TrEMBL record:
Signal sequence segment: none
Domain Hemerythrin-like: 26-129
Name of one Pfam family that matches: Hemerythrin
SUPFAM superfamilies: Hemerythrin-like
Coiled-coil ranges (or none): none
Source domain of life: Bacteria
Family: Belongs to the hemerythrin family.
The keyword Transport belongs to this UniProt entry's keyword annotation: yes
Keyword ATP-binding: no
Protein name, entry field: Hemerythrin-like domain-containing protein
Keywords noted in UniProt: Iron, Metal-binding, Oxygen transport, Transport
Length: 159
């Protein structure tokens, strides 16, 4: 019996990305949208493409987290230690899963893709939202305003 239930990589599920994840910080929003797309690709990846999909998520997450961590440090964001620790935990998990995938444990990678999809929206809506509010307050003296007029409707990534 496998350690995790077998999943069909062609199953479709609700997309991770939606306008509800926009925070009003163009650079961070763009990186978040790209990370959500990469996680979706990992969720849909067939076994032979899983390592490449995981590597893309890991590379983007590491770069994005490093940029956010630097913003938190340079602006003395009060809850930065908790936020940075969460980034480190995610990266550590992804690296561990990458090692297991190298040993042929594809279902572990598939399971972590689903866990990332569940983790990502609350992380953005709580921790990253607090960060963008902090950055906007420092720069403009107010919270960000997010206008969603004219955005393309979300489309599910076809697996």
């Amino acid at each position: 019996m496998p350690a995790f239930p077998a999943m069909n990589p062609t199953e479709t599920s609700a997309p991770i990305w939606s306008d509800s994840l926009l925070l009003g910080h163009a650079a961070i929003d763009g990186e978040h949208e790209q990370l959500a797309e990469l996680i979706e690709r990992m969720r849909c990846a067939a076994a032979p493409e899983m390592a490449q999909a995981l590597d893309a998520v890991l590379q983007h997450a590491a770069s994005h987290f490093a940029a956010e961590n630097e913003l938190m440090r340079t602006t003395a964001f009060p809850p930065r230690d908790c936020h940075i620790s969460e980034h480190e935990a995610v990266l550590s998990t992804l690296r561990g899963v990458r090692a297991r995938l190298a040993r042929g444990e594809v279902e572990v990678a598939r399971r972590v893709a689903d866990e990332l999809a569940a983790w990502f929206p609350p992380h953005v809506q709580h921790l990253d939202s607090a960060l963008t509010h902090w950055l906007c307050k420092l720069q403009h003296g107010a919270k960000p305003v997010v206008l969603r007029v004219g955005r393309k409707p979300e489309a599910a990534l076809a697996c």
